[in-house]
Specification:
Blueprint (H helix, E strand, L loop, with lengths): L1 H18 L2 E7 L18 H9 L1 E3 L2 E2 L5 H10 L3 H4 L19 E2 L14 H7 L3 E6 L17 E3 L29 H15 L5 E6 L11 H10 L10 E4 L2 E4 L5 H23 L6 E7 L26 H4 L3 E4 L8 E3 L3 E2 L3 H8 L16 H6 L9 E6 L10 E6 L2 E6 L5 E5 L15 H17 L6 E2 L5 H25 L18
Parallel strand pairs: 1-7, 1-10, 2-12, 3-13, 5-6, 5-7
Antiparallel strand pairs: 2-11, 4-18, 8-9, 10-11, 14-15, 15-16, 16-17
Helix pairs in contact: 2-8, 6-8, 7-8
Length: about 525
C-alpha cells in the first residue's frame, strides 16, 4: 500500500513539473527602445522582434534597473534595485581615487560580483525542478561567480568580460565557448545554441536565458549588410550635424549608422532562430518568453551608434534614453496577443513574475524590490503598481557623459537628484517625454516629497555615495569641455559621414566577417 502511495506521489510531482511553463528570457546589450521597428525605428529592420512584441503584452513604460550593464543584470538575477545589492556600476569600472578623469567627484565604491549568499532566479527555478541554461554575456564576476556558480546548469560564453573578446565574428576567443568556423557570427551562434537547447528538452521544464553580447561595441557587421543599410540610410541632416552637445558630450540625433543597422538585423535573425525552436517544440502555448535590454542605446560615448529620440540621452545617462527598454512578455495560453500596458515596470520585476506565472512560491525576502506582474499580464491591469516608487542609483560618472545621480519615479513624475551640488530636476513624463521642461522650481513641494522618499530608501539599504575629489582642477575641466564642443564633435561628424561613403572600409579584412 505504501509503495502505491509513493508511486502516486512521484507521478503527481512529475505531472506537475511537466505542466509548468517553460521560460525563455532574452536580454540584449545596449539596446535602445527605438532601435526596434515596432517602437518607431524607420531604419532598422526587426520583423522577428516585432512579431515577438505582438505575440503577448508590450509594456510602454519598461525600464532597465540601471543606465549601464552589470547593475541591471544583477537586478534581474536578484529582484532588487541596484542600491540594495551594491553592484552600481559596470564591473571593472574605476572607483574612488582610482578614477582620475578630472571630474569634481570621486565615484563611490561598489560590489564587484554577484553576492554568493543571495538566491538567484535560476537557483530558485532549479530548486523547483527546472533545467537552467545560459548563453552569452554575463559580466557579473569571474571564477567563483560565473553562471554555473549561481544556478545555471549550462553556460555557453558567459564570463567576466562585458564585450566579446574576439569581436562578433569567429574566432571568438571566448574561454567558455567553442570557436566556430572563421567568420561565423557570434550573435547567430548564441541564438542557434539556445535554439538547440530548447529542441533537446523533453517534458521537464526549463529556463533558458539568452544574453546577447550584441549590440554592444565594437560595432561590426558583414560587408553585405553594411552595403544594404548604406543604400537605405535616410538623408543626412540638412545642416550636416548628426550630433548635438548635451551638457557633457555630443549625442547622436539620427539613426543612419549602417554598421549598427547590420548588427540589428543579425540580432533580429538570432531572435527568430530561438522563436522558431519555441514554436516547433509543441509547447509554445505554455512557454513564457520575455524580451528586454540592460540599458539604453549608445547615443554618446563608446561607438555613438544610435539615436534614442524622442527620449533624451542614452546609455550611461540619467534621462529616459538611458533607461527605457523594450519590455515584451508573452505566453499564448495566458497572455492576450497584441496587448499593451502603461504600468511602469523594471527588470527587477522579472524574478517574482516568473515565479508567479510558473506557479511557484514567491520569495519576498529575496526579490525585495521586484513586484509580480502576473495580474497585469493575465487581467491587463493592477492598480497597485501604477503609483509605486521606482528607484535608480548611479553614484558614478558614465563613459557616455552621465552624471552621478539618483532617480525616483512615482506615477507620472520623475525626479533626478544630482550628487554634485545636490540639485534636482523634475519632469512630468506624459507631457514631456523628451525631458526638456524642468519643473523643479515650479513644484518645490513635490520635489521635496519625492527627494525625501528617494533618500529614505537609499538610507534604508545603506547606499554608497560619491565624495569630492581634492584633485579637481577647474581650469583643466574647462579645457576638456572646449575640446568636446569643438574638435571631438568635428571628428565624430566626419567619422559617421564616412561610414556612408561607397569606398568606406574599416580595415583590410572586414573582421573576417564572411558569414552571417
Amino acid at each position: 500500500m505504501l509503495a502505491v502511495i509513493g508511486w502516486m506521489l512521484l507521478a503527481s510531482i512529475a505531472s506537475g513539473e511537466e505542466s509548468r511553463p517553460n521560460v525563455v528570457l532574452i536580454l540584449v546589450d545596449d539596446l535602445g527602445l527605438h532601435d526596434i521597428g515596432i517602437e518607431g525605428s524607420k531604419f532598422h529592420q526587426t520583423p522577428h522582434i516585432d512579431a515577438l512584441a505582438e505575440r503577448g503584452m508590450r509594456f510602454t513604460a519598461g525600464y532597465a534597473n540601471c543606465r549601464v550593464c552589470s547593475p541591471s543584470r544583477a537586478s534581474i538575477q536578484l529582484g532588487q534595485y541596484t542600491a540594495r545589492h551594491g553592484i552600481t556600476d559596470w564591473i571593472g569600472a574605476a572607483s574612488g581615487k582610482n578614477f582620475n578623469r578630472g571630474d569634481e567627484l570621486l565615484p563611490a565604491e561598489y560590489v564587484r560580483e554577484l553576492p554568493a549568499e543571495d538566491v538567484t532566479l535560476p537557483e530558485a527555478l532549479r530548486e523547483a525542478g527546472y533545467t537552467t541554461f545560459f548563453a552569452g554575456k554575463w559580466h557579473l564576476g569571474g571564477d567563483g561567480s560565473l553562471p554555473t556558480d549561481h544556478g545555471f546548469d549550462i553556460n555557453i560564453g558567459g564570463h567576466h568580460r562585458g564585450s566579446p573578446p574576439g569581436g562578433f565574428f569567429a574566432p571568438f576567443k571566448n574561454p567558455l565557448m567553442e570557436d566556430g568556423p572563421d567568420g561565423e557570427s557570434l550573435t547567430r551562434r548564441l541564438g542557434k545554441d539556445t535554439a538547440s537547447f530548447i529542441e533537446q528538452q523533453g517534458d521537464k521544464p526549463y529556463f533558458a536565458m539568452l544574453s546577447f553580447y550584441a549590440v554592444h561595441g565594437p560595432i561590426q557587421t558583414s560587408q553585405e549588410l553594411w552595403q544594404k543599410y548604406r543604400e537605405s540610410a535616410p538623408p543626412a541632416p540638412a545642416d550636416g550635424n548628426r550630433f548635438l552637445v548635451d551638457r557633457t558630450l555630443p549625442v547622436r540625433q539620427i539613426q543612419d549608422n549602417p554598421v549598427y543597422a547590420g548588427m540589428m538585423e543579425t540580432l533580429d535573425n538570432a531572435v527568430g532562430d530561438v522563436m522558431k525552436a519555441v514554436e516547433a517544440s509543441g509547447k509554445a502555448d505554455n512557454t513564457l518568453v520575455i524580451f528586454t535590454g540592460d540599458n539604453g542605446g549608445v547615443s554618446s560615448g563608446d561607438a555613438y551608434s544610435t539615436s534614442n529620440l524622442p527620449h533624451r540621452g542614452g546609455k550611461g545617462r540619467q534621462w529616459e534614453g538611458g533607461l527605457r527598454e523594450p519590455y515584451y512578455v508573452s505566453m499564448p495560453a495566458r497572455i492576450a496577443a497584441g496587448s499593451t500596458s502603461d504600468v511602469p515596470v523594471m527588470g527587477s520585476d522579472f524574478y517574482p513574475t516568473i515565479l508567479d506565472v510558473c506557479g511557484l512560491p514567491l520569495r519576498p525576502e529575496q526579490h525585495k524590490d521586484g513586484d509580480s506582474l502576473e495580474t497585469v499580464l493575465v487581467k491587463g491591469e493592477d492598480p497597485s503598481l501604477h503609483d509605486r516608487a521606482l528607484v535608480w542609483h548611479y553614484p558614478h560618472y558614465g563613459n557616455q557623459g552621465g552624471e552621478p545621480s539618483s532617480i525616483i519615479r512615482v506615477g507620472e513624475y520623475k525626479l533626478i537628484h544630482y550628487h554634485l551640488g545636490s540639485k534636482d530636476e523634475l519632469y512630468h513624463l506624459p507631457s514631456d517625454i523628451g525631458e526638456q521642461n524642468d519643473l523643479a522650481s515650479q513644484q518645490p513641494e513635490r520635489v521635496a516629497k519625492m527627494r525625501e522618499q528617494l533618500m529614505a530608501y537609499l538610507k534604508s539599504v545603506d547606499a554608497k555615495f560619491p565624495e569630492p575629489d581634492p584633485r579637481f582642477d577647474p581650469e583643466k575641466a574647462k579645457q576638456r569641455w572646449a575640446k568636446i564642443q569643438g574638435p571631438q564633435k568635428e571628428r565624430l561628424e566626419k567619422r559617421e559621414a564616412a561610414m556612408l561613403q561607397p569606398n568606406w572600409q574599416p580595415n583590410p579584412t572586414w573582421w573576417g566577417s564572411t558569414v552571417d
